[in-house]
Amino acid sequence: MKRIVLVTTVFDVWSIEHVLSGISIGSAVKKRNHKAFKKVLGEDHNHHSWYFNLMGVLFLGYLWETLEHYLEEGMAGKGVEYWF
């Protein structure tokens, strides 16, 4: 008789991918926001910049998840519906 071992993991491949994507998108958003602050204010301010960084990352993440949802639902054709 074979023994089946079920393993529950805390992090799967998609969790690791989301963390790494968040880090890379966060870095890009932070650089862009600091450039914008420097351009508008004449100097780089850290005052409230964490808020704009967080909003930028959440916006891009939500935008991607929405796009991914519609692609998986077949809104872009049947070929894209089964891409995962």
Salient structural properties:
84 residues; mainly alpha; single chain
How would you characterize the overall build of this protein?
The protein is mostly helical. α1 packs across α2. The protein has helices at 13-41, 49-72, 78-81. The chain has 3 helices and no strands. Helix content is 68%, strand content 0%. The protein has a domain at 59-84. It is elongated, with a radius of gyration of 19 Å.
Described by the principal axes of the CA atoms, the overall outline is: elongated
What ranges have pLDDT less than 50 throughout 5 or more consecutive residues?
Answer: none
Radius of gyration: 19 Å
Please bin the fraction of helical residues.
55-70%
Order of helices and strands: HHH
CA(first)-CA(last) distance: 34 Å
How many helices? The count is 3
Class derived from helix and strand content: mainly alpha
Q: Biggest β-sheet: count, sense, barrel?
A: none
Strand content: under 5%
Q: How many E strands?
A: 0
Mean pLDDT: 78
